[in-house]
From TrEMBL, chains A, B:
It holds the Pfam family FTHFS. Belongs to the formate--tetrahydrofolate ligase family. Signal peptide: none annotated. Pathway: One-carbon metabolism; tetrahydrofolate interconversion. This is Formate--tetrahydrofolate ligase. Keywords: ATP-binding, Ligase, Nucleotide-binding, One-carbon metabolism.
């Protein structure tokens, strides 16, 4: 446990990558389906989805977590490690992961390529442009914005109310100064003056559309359905009405194809889309899941944040679109997360753990156990088998790791330690065996609500049955919003609850498994193109900022032209 | 001359593309230097520039034009046609062209892929993302802007004067509403409030840097040298001081490699960079020229607008960096351009030619002859042989075409008709032969000025010796700017004169070859990273707008998922 690990970048640099055709072969993907982008990534032609499948669909495994600390609990590394671990026990698996956002790479970086000996490589490609999908989302999003403002400028024939426009602009960057802007200043020919702002590209509705669409035709339909604002009379105005949807589809025609990369152990990974985990679905794409499930025995996908967040939307939103039935859920837990849930410690983003948290203290772990128990219950609530994966850190103590195991076993869950960061796939073999066993159980997957339920009822069911709230409290505005959305025909859409990921409740300060609380819904918005309605329950940041010494200042090329300081 | 031509898109669709490895072989490029991006484009590894060249450098041919009408005179089609024509006469040639900007593709589109049977294919790839270089420029540019605003927000240790910041943001889009904006509104944590704006990506200084840098190390140096604004004390503040240059280089590490594509006749073409032709150099990249000249017998490159604009900068700025000596210049002329220079007709952008301009009228052609004569003289002024290429339109009359030939021959220039749009390379065979003959002449290339000349003297020499102005008139501001730049050590930089491209003078209404005029210099700016000083002589638009019915409204996918309506 005291191995001194080389840095992620050093490990990644030493990797001998396989030709992608060999990686594809391992995934069962036909070589001719690969469209190369650079030497180490390829797009997969969606033609592979045509015709009758030659085999039963893969077993679908979602990797989720307990409520994380601001440092994250290693969900991506566990997903990568597990996929590598499957090969160690003779099973064939494929990963489907979100593409990391480039903005945070230059801010405070969490590292979205995995870590240690469980990484996607080349990591600098993954964390910068990859094949340009995020750029395409940015371009399509901003084309719609430009066409909207041009429509206002050229006479506003649709009668769009400038004070009721929800479509902003996006950039894949951390730039606080763009959160609130006034555009169209200067002489009259420089456009109509109005207030608006920029979000980070990952927060674009188009990013969610990219993640949820099931074909090029479906992409076209969803883009056309985007509501950019309302007329003076309260009627929605769509991208279709602005004549933008066709051109937006043309911009996204390549982006819709998932990107094939590999792990350090040459496990095939489809990297695709990267919607925000707080206001959006926080899951990789339906198309990547469909491709992977057609060719592999096991598909391992990661959902953002805790099981109350990304996994809930995986089950209630994404699986409804893909039609894929989850076979098991991996619940990543760390000693430090349960210690934090004891309420006895404070963990801050971008800072090292307080020294006292590293001392041996299984009591702290047990004091935070409620959070793990609640997440096990959340997963079970969907009729899915939970497998608790203890992501082992070098600083963990044996007594603490055992405490976690006892808590999980007492709750009736399968449990396994995983040392994939230090040992790669070999360190995840125990976890892989537990997952395979869980997948053998008969699944009785059940979403939390039916689409026929009213929007308010859907919100209430998620709040009470998933989060454990007593009830929801709709503000006057929220009630008005819901009524209007039902009238506009959005009533059959699924819901997303935009709340903090640092608590199962909507209060980031509440640790463990909060009870006796009410979910306050401030307002409700509709992502009609993506196909969901989302309730705002807290302050959601959709454009990060840069700190006083952003990570970008450490990034440069070395004398060989290789990127250094990326992580 | 009455052939009914299929549309550009139809012709492009019917093309049977060669595998890029075969195209590379034709260019003499080693197969292992190709890094594929999609099925029909590849980046060329800059390793090909290492080691001793195996052959003498190619003969360098720049394709320029008379002063164009707002419709353009077919410079790109001529460059493509000529390159194809070289093969028809048994010569080996390679093209180096700018990448078209995506913004105008969705506005009013001029078609930057060539046209008819002289096109770069696949045209939809060329006109949309290609390999993402423009996106990389956008990302690098805006990262610097975000780091600048973060610096202001976190205490402004460098003492940057918020009222003296010249670094704006960019997007590859036509969006007039972004020309003038106020950012940093809202609560204090949302940044420092200040006025700024967005330019189109092609107008970014980083795009010029991409076009002028000669290696990755040179790119890094130039990025660090970018001046974003000045301190309260008047000292320049650079990207290096903000700690941004390394990260920007990382973002641009792949973009620096030229992109290999092919013409309809499989002629190799390097597509790279796309700086604006009015405020910037308007030429494709030095690196593309260096790669092409190392492997080909002839390199054909296009420079923006007329010979007073792009070609002047090709000679005075780009060739100084690349060290390549131009062997000949092709001067594209059309019957319609000379008719327009008669002053008897008006041609408006985005509109069809007035009917009376299509009537047979060689007198109108002769009345506009001064413009052609002046451009021949401009080319000769650089010691380069001009070849006049008459780009034949189906609506031209024999007497008019003969009139053009007589004017060119009377001026002592080689001249050839070219019907490459209708007949592909075969239609440019006469032109190709004339170009080969011109290249056999001994070249006495001489730039207009020496770098040791003062900035004012450089501006004056270009204005008088190239444009034919009597003198220049510096405003008080311009004098102040020049003095300050000399003090700051920018005095040895070459100059760019930002003026209209619709006249050889700075007044867009003056046709032909204006005489007896003075060039008014309103202000002078420095692009220190790119490495030139530019004089503002007129209103330069750096962010286009969308019309009432933008081209985007016609673009969509057909039932096979193919893009339609792109042109």
């Amino acid at each position: 446990m005291t191995t001194k690990l080389p840095s992620d970048l050093e490990i990644a640099r030493q990797a001998q990558l396989w030709p992608l055709a060999d990686v594809a072969q391992r995934a069962g993907l036909p070589a001719e389906s690969l469209i190369p982008y650079g030497r180490h990534a390829a797009k997969v032609d969606l033609d592979v989805l045509e015709g009758e499948p030659q085999r039963p669909p893969a077993k679908m495994i979602v990797v989720t977590a307990v409520t994380p600390t601001p440092l994250g609990e290693g969900k991506t590394t566990t997903a990568v490690g597990l996929a590598q671990g499957m090969a160690h026990i003779g099973q064939q698996a494929m990963l489907t992961l979100r593409q990391p956002s480039m903005g945070p790479t230059f801010g405070v970086k969490g590292g979205a390529a995995g870590g240690g000996y469980s990484q996607i490589v080349p990591m600098e490609m993954l964390n910068l442009h990859l094949t340009g999908d995020f750029h395409a989302v940015t371009a399509a999003h901003n084309l719609l914005a430009a066409m909207l403002d041009a429509h206002l400028f050229h006479g506003n024939a649709l009668g769009l109310d400038p004070d009721n426009i929800s479509w902003r602009r996006v950039l894949d960057i951390n730039d606080r100064a763009l959160r609130n802007v006034v555009i169209g200043l200067g002489p009259k020919e420089d456009g109509v003056t109005r207030q608006t702002g920029f979000d980070i590209t990952a927060a674009s509705e188009i990013m969610v559309i990219l993640s949820l669409c099931s074909s090029l035709a479906d992409l076209r339909t969803r883009l056309g359905r985007i509501v950019v604002g309302f007329t003076y009379g309260g009627e929605p105005v769509t991208a279709e009405q602005l004549g933008a949807a066709g051109a937006m589809t043309a911009i996204l025609r390549d982006a819709i194809q998932p990107n094939l990369m590999q792990t350090l152990e040459h496990t095939p990974a489809l990297i695709h889309a990267g919607p925000f985990g707080n206001i959006a679905t926080g899951n990789s794409s339906v198309l990547a899941d469909l491709v992977a499930s057609r060719f592999s025995d096991y598909v391992i996908t990661e959902a953002g944040f805790g099981a109350d967040m990304g996994a809930e939307r995986f089950f209630n939103v994404k699986c409804r679109v893909s039609g894929l039935i989850p076979a098991a859920a991996v619940l990543v837990v760390t000693v430090r997360a349960l210690k934090a849930h004891s309420g006895r410690h404070r963990v801050a983003p971008g800072k090292a753990l307080p020294a006292e948290m590293l001392e041996e203290n299984p009591d702290d772990v047990r004091a935070g156990a409620d959070n793990l128990r609640k997440h096990i219950e959340i997963v079970r609530g969907f009729g899915v088998s939970p497998v608790v994966a203890i992501n082992v850190f070098p600083t963990d103590h044996e007594s603490e790791l055992e405490a976690v195991r006892e808590i999980a076993e007492a709750a009736g869950a399968r449990v396994a330690r995983s040392t994939h960061v230090v040992h790669g796939g070999a360190g995840a073999a125990e976890l892989a065996r537990a997952v395979v066993a869980a997948c053998e159980e008969s699944s009785e997957f059940r979403p939390t609500y039916a689409l026929d339920d009213s929007l308010a009822s859907k919100l209430e069911k998620v709040a009470t049955q998933v989060y454990g709230a007593d009830s929801i409290e709709l503000s006057a505005q929220a009630k008005k919003d819901l009524k209007r959305f039902e009238e506009l025909g959005y009533g059959r859409l699924p819901v997303v609850i935009a709340k903090t990921h640092l608590s199962i409740s909507s209060d980031p300060k509440l640790r463990g498994a909060p009870t006796g609380w009410t979910l306050p819904v401030r307002e409700v918005r509709a992502a009609v193109g993506a196909g969901y309605v989302y309730a705002i329950c807290g302050d959601m940041r959709t454009m990060p900022g840069l700190g006083a010494t952003p990570a970008a200042q450490q990034i440069d090329l070395d004398e060989h032209g290789e990127i250094q300081g990326l992580f």
